[in-house]
């Protein structure tokens, strides 16, 4: 039999020699005459003889996955395959169908069938804290191939021959995610279990899964979870993730400090945030966030949330809050009436504001440096004419993309070309039609061709390699300056910004000319 591939090229030649029944009888008679075989052996059929001749093939050997691309099994086997996949999730212990191996063409797929499967399992794990445990099957060989810790546990010099291993410090869902990676070579992460999965990957030294967890956390990083992730990144010794967390906390400090996650951080992380020089927030916001943390910490320590206990759990961290740098109104209406300060501290801080000879304070009295905003100017010149640029409720809009994560704080806008004037500006930032930030404010222009900043309430996080839409609707003096000789790409420090026209623009603004000459951002 000549075996050929789909293109008609020779692959292998198989020759089969079959013994017919009559030949078997004749051979049996000959053997009986010669006395070379017993009666029992003459009754048996002779073995089928075959020979495989491999033809020369200069092509590189292919793996099973290359020869058999992944595709849906035939209709007759679809139900069985789905049962096996469902069994992996439910741990039903048995595989009813025989020859299940024939359903999967690659070793990877056959190996995946063993995931969370009691078939041939030679070890079991009782995972989770008391009261929330789950018993999961495992196969020592597969686990040892995927983790050096499992290899030492099962085959090392100090290996213990246990049929059941208890793991109380790992969540069952996280342990299953790690097993799925080891068995199936698949990474299945979820926002509510990714930190626990990272812990499991670190504990059992599965570096590629750990790296995937860190990447997942970096892409889902926001002001809401930055403080918690900062605490965890220090615990897991992930410096890259730590740096990304600080970038978000610095730029969106007020959002981060007001988030629920801030109250969940440990004391060491609290101190590091309160010490931060580049924290871009009002000090009254820092003060209120520290009091909120203290209240939750009292609950964790099973203390009544009194003023005395709040001060007790804050300890020396209280003096890291730069109360003397607050605006006087913020101090008088906030910190001074909070009760957290002693009477002497309150008096000394009031004297610090008003007296020529200032008293010594335990609090840090030097303002934070904050962040210096960068400006990306997209026009090479500007002009004005007697019939433009006019504003009648129409929208000026432009699209942009960056190559690094930045935080848009606001836009720089042109003002009146006919002397000083006040404008009302509604600014908006969207991504794929979804509003990420907007604000309605006023700015005063002095009649020059300078740009005038208009700010969002909070900086908006911008991810790289995605186009966003910046828009503004102006109301005020109808004639203003406008930009000319626009650039499609601008290098601003270490950030490259690309511009393109927006379909939302109904007042004439585009890449070559118009309004929104500047993007103001932190990077």
From TrEMBL:
Keywords: Cytoplasm. Gene3D superfamilies: 1.25.40.420, PHR domain, Potassium Channel Kv1.1, Chain A. CDD domains: BACK_BTBD3, BTB_POZ_BTBD3. Residues 121-191 form the BTB domain. It is found in: Cytoplasm. This is BTBD3 protein. InterPro entries: BACK (IPR011705), BTB/POZ_dom (IPR000210), PHR (IPR012983), PHR_sf (IPR038648), SKP1/BTB/POZ_sf (IPR011333). PROSITE patterns: BTB. Its main location: cytoplasm. The keyword Nucleus does not apply. The gene is Btbd3. GO terms for cellular component: cytosol. One of its GO terms (biological process) is dendrite morphogenesis.
